[in-house]
Amino acid sequence: MSKNRVMVVDDEFHMRDFICETLRRKHLEVVAFSDGQSALDALAKYPVDLIISDVKMPKMSGLTLLKHIKQTYPTMDVIMITAYGTIEDAVTAIREGAYDYVQKPFAPHDLLLCVEKVFKFRDLVYENKNLKQQLGTRFRFDNIIGASPKMLKLYETLEMVSSSKASVLIQGDSGTGKELVARAIHVNSPNRSGPFIKINCAAMPDTLMESELFGHEKGAFTGAIKMVEGRFSLANGGTLLLDEISEMSPNMQAKLLRVLQEREFERLGGRETMKTNARIIATTNRDLKTLLREEKFREDLYYRLNVCPIFMPSLSERKEDIPLLINHFLSIYAKEYNRPIESLSQEALDVLMNYSWPGNVRELENKIERAVIMCMERQIAPKHLFMEESASIPGFAVPVGEDLPITLREIERMAIFKTLKENNSNRTKTAEMLGISVRTLRNKLREYRTEGIAV
Fold first, then answer.
1. Which fold has domain 315-392?
2. Would you say 328 and 145 are in contact if contact means Cβ atoms under 8 Å apart?
């Protein structure tokens, strides 16, 4: 443990001395008081990082002291010490804002484990604040987030590309943020005051696609009861995003090529030639060079679109950006769902860092949103994540398939039993590996025994 300051409050001399000595052996700076009022008076002059207080004390109880501390120092972490059989006091303490409690009698290791959790949590909160400051400076381009070498290079490319009006082809796997990049190019371009219009080329048949792109005159086809502007007209003076351009049919590719070459078109059923100065940005999650060899995409259209090529890296290629992205999504969804979440535990972060992310940033965002929904605590733990790959426990694999026969509770039990076995039934090591307290592990095992499961 690093040098941190701890205040100990206990009216029993021997217990107070035992706690202080336990903490000092770990090179912690300790100050001790025998009553709550003295502790409160000293806090104004002697700031500390953590307070450890007994619940049962004369004059001012530990719970009363906790209330005063939280009123004056709302971010102060407090660990309460409770006697055996006073679980109601422990529950009350947690409700009043205590970080955790330790039940007498306890071993030095149990106390130190609890203290270490507090400092780890505090360090994560501090780290998240630093990340938030970084997110507002050099590690983003509009809403695109990342600090990896690949992303910093992408920002340089975007700055150069955005200042022009040339066509852009953005290639990358699904979920990497191609549309986000397209919007960023638009808002930083000379056309920023114009509209940003998009069309999904994979979602429409040719007849509808032609009408959507170029518009149609009244009576051009059955159901055309009035003249309708097409996307090229709507995007005039702005940007037109052709999403998933690789799915466009050969017939529509030829018609699109003419517009890019001539910068003009006619509405369906019309004779008037319309002009457009919309900037074209196209995206695809397929390898267009392969489609060229297979003669499924026009070579001349490819070179018209590929004036400024941009390649989006997958999340697995820039895993160092995952903490930044987590922090970004966490701040969004904690506010949206009104959750008091401040950070992820180190164990939860390890799970996310070791995952392969086939769905890229979009999948990470979905995971964080779901974790926020499932978490009612200050910190997201591995139990709040449901991952297709169980990377947090070496050698433990969750069965995945259409006939998954187990519940989340059973997965949890499997993880506990396997980790216990790996640690030769050492509960302390098992709890540390699983990212839970020894008390929580003990309660889980008690539940299993009650249910008739051999432990």
1. Helicase, Ruva Protein; domain 3 (1.10.8)
2. yes
**DSSP string computed for 7-41:** EEE-S-HHHHHHHHHHHHTTT-EEEEESSHHHHHH
345 C-beta neighbours (distance < 10 Å), count: 21
The pTM of this model reads 0.58
**Which architecture, in CATH terms, is 393-455?**
Orthogonal Bundle (1.10)
Residue 175 · residue 362 · CB < 8 Å: yes
Residue 284 region, left (φ>0) first, then alpha (ψ -120 to 50), else beta?
Answer: beta
Do 5-126 and 143-313 have matching folds? yes
What are the percentages of helix, strand and coil residues in the chain, rounded to 5?
Answer: 50, 15, 35
**Would you state the structure tokens that stand for residue 287, as one six-digit string?**
């390898």
What is the mean pLDDT of each successive set of 10 residues along the chain, which is 455 residues long? Answer: 80 93 92 93 88 92 91 88 73 83 88 89 68 47 83 91 93 94 92 93 84 91 88 94 94 93 91 92 94 94 95 94 91 89 88 90 93 88 73 45 49 78 82 75 80 63
